[in-house]
Structures are given as C-alpha cells and as structure tokens.
Amino acid sequence: MRAAEAPASRPDAATTVILTMRRLAVAGLPRNYELFYEAVTNGNRELTDALSSLGSRPSQRQLDTVARKFLTRKDEGVVDEAHDTISGKLDEILGLLKRERNSMETYGQILGETSSGLASRQTISREFLDKIIQVTAAATRSSIETRSNVVSTISDKSSELQAVKSTLEEYKRLADTDALTQLQNRRAFDRVISGIYDNNRSIAFSALLLADIDRFKTVNDRFGHPVGDRIIQIVATIIRSTVKDGVFVARTGGEEFAIVLEGSGEDATYRIAEDIRQAIMDAPFVNVANGTNYGPITLSLGTCMATQAQGPDDLYVKADRALYASKAAGRNRATRFSALADGGLSKSWQLYRRD
Asked: Which H or E element spans position 318?
C-alpha cells in the first residue's frame, strides 16, 4: 500500500509519549521515555494519575520516585535469588572449614595426649605401643579422609559458585542488551552517562553523540514495522562498525542511538558523527529478493562535550538540542551543541516533531 492510500490514523505510542513529555517539559532522558511509554501503552491508571499529579515541569527526583514505584524490575528477583544462592554456598563452605578446624584440633589433642602418656611412662610394653599405634593411625586416617572430603566438597561448591556467577553475568549482559540490535540498551546507557561525571578526567575527555533516523515514521507507514525493524538493525550494524571497538553504542529509543566517546575532542567527535552520517547515507537499503528500495535512509545527529554540561541529564538534553537543530535545518546532518547561538533554538527544539 502506497503512502497516499494509507488511511488516516491516530498518533502512535511513541509520538504520544514524545508530545506528552514536551507538553509537560519533561527532560528527554531514556528513563523518562520508559516511564511515559509504560503509562501510554499499558493503560496503568494509577501510573497515569501519579504522573498527572506532578503537573508541568516535574523535577527529575519526582519522576524517579514514580518510576521506582511503578516500573517492575525483572532483574531484581534474579539478582536476589543469585545473592541468596551465593550466600548459601559460602555458608556451607565456612561450615566445612569450621568442622575441619575442629577435626584438626581433635587430632592434635589426641597426638598431644599420646605424647604426654608416653613421656610419663618409665616402661612401655609392646601391647601398649600397639594400642597407641592403632589409636594414632585411626586418628590420622580420619584426619586425612576428613581433609580430603573437605577439599573435594569445597571444590564442588566452588564449581557451583562459578556456575551461579556465570549465569548472573550472562543475565546482566542480557539485561543491558537491546534485543533487536544487540547494542547496549537504555538501562546500560543511563549507567554509563552517569558515570562520566564520577571524576574530572572523564568529564574532560568524554562526549555524547545522539543519532536519530530521519522520517522513520514514514518508513514504518509505507513498508510496515518488520521492514522498519530491519532498517534499525542495519543502521545499528553500520554505526557499530564505523566506530572503534570498545566505544559504547546504545539504542536508547525506537529509532534513536547514543554513542559515548572517550578521549575525543570536539572536532574529532564531530568527524565521527559525520563518518556515521556518511556511512548511513551511502548504504543501500534494498530488498535483494524483490528489488524494493526502502531508501534513502539518513541520520540527523547532535554532539555535546561533557565539559559543556553540568551533569548527565544536562549533557543528554544539550546533545538532544543539537540533534533537533539538525532536524530543523533539513535533516541528514550533524550539529555541535557549541554551534547553537546562545540557546536560541530552545523554543523550536521543544516544539519540533521528530519523525
């Protein structure tokens, strides 16, 4: 079905979320998108009422309080279960070591008493010596067997602990991974962007780059969401292959991506943004099977240096403003936050509809 034949439809959930957040002057942070998306898509009346009660321009602390109350974190149960398992295994190992210590103390006591008994006797019969040898041999065998069992059991418990640890690490990796693109997700992004401001060195040498697929809603409307998902995957692959290994790349929204750069100055950051933009523009988005061309696909990008912001929230907002400047200037371009004239875009970027 061609775009001209598509029936008029209500705004999709993503558009509703964006418009609602802008109307309430809510910062465009990933965790805020998640909160409002939950309210819009799941029909949670209590959550909707809680957000409405905050009014316009709610503080980030108020929003985070609502999120902690209404957003269920599936990973909490897994982490708690893993914690309980690890604690149980460690308690078992400590119990084994305690019993081993008691066993060694008993063995030492037997040897001590035997030694004292021998020293106190002036004459020792062969029969007495045989009894002493039997007792000490039995104690020695018992001690060796106990120690062997302890070592074997601790080895088993250690293997079990390693299995629990591996499972937990794999879960943590999956919890931080976007299922569609296999990039990092919003959860991981929030943690990384907050970490930038943990020390002065990170602030001095870090930058945030935001990228958004241009007119993506039109692509979805024309070709359907499966094609849209495939385009997002291709874009993610191109971005990942364009930047260096080890660079943090995340999908933070439907068609939005974030790259956290370390050790790049403003000019270098802008060149990376341009490299990504050019790579996407040059890539063919064609269905080989039927020859359908889904392009052109382009990106708008915005960059901001960590030194130009007061904190992670401010850094995201300023990079987002630069991104909207690219949209407003015609799309398919990169804009530095420092290029914005004294925040003169502050009104239009809030009203501009991303599509």
From this structure: helix 312-328
Sign of CA dihedral 225, 231, 233, 235: negative
**Domain segments of the chain as ranges:** 74-175, 178-355
Helix (H, G, I), strand (E, B) or coil at 181: coil
- Top-confidence residue, 65 or 6: 65
How many residues comprise the chain?
355
Strand order in the sheet with 248-251: 248-251, 256-262, 206-213, 299-305, 334-336
Q: Which own/partner contact pairs does 222-230 have at CB distance under 8 Å and 24+ positions apart? A: 222/2, 222/3, 222/6, 223/292, 223/294, 227/294, 228/255, 229/180
User: For residue range 170-216, what is the model confidence (pLDDT) as tens digits?
Assistant: 666 677 888 889 999 998 999 999 999 988 888 988 999 999 999 99
Task: Work out the percent of the chain whose per-residue pLDDT is above 70.
Answer: 61
**Residue closest to 174 by CA, chosen among 80, 75, 247, 259:** 75
**Secondary structure tally for the chain: helices H, strands E:** 13, 5
Tell me which CATH code domain 178-355 carries. Answer: 3.30.70.270
> What is the bridge-based pairing of β-strands 299-305 and 248-251?
unpaired
Q: How many CB atoms lie within 10 A of CB 188?
A: 21
Q: What percent of the chain has pLDDT over 90?
A: 34
Contact between residue 126 and residue 83 where contact means Cβ atoms under 8 Å apart: no
Integer CA distances (angstroms), 202 to 63, 243, 311, in order: 27, 19, 12
- CA separation, residue 166 to residues 73, 171, 216, 271, 354 (Å): 21, 9, 39, 39, 41
Q: How far apart are CA 337 and CA 304, in angstroms?
A: 5
Whole-number pLDDT of residue 16: 74
When comparing pLDDT for 170 and 309, which is higher? 309
Q: How far apart are CA 143 and CA 137, in angstroms?
A: 10
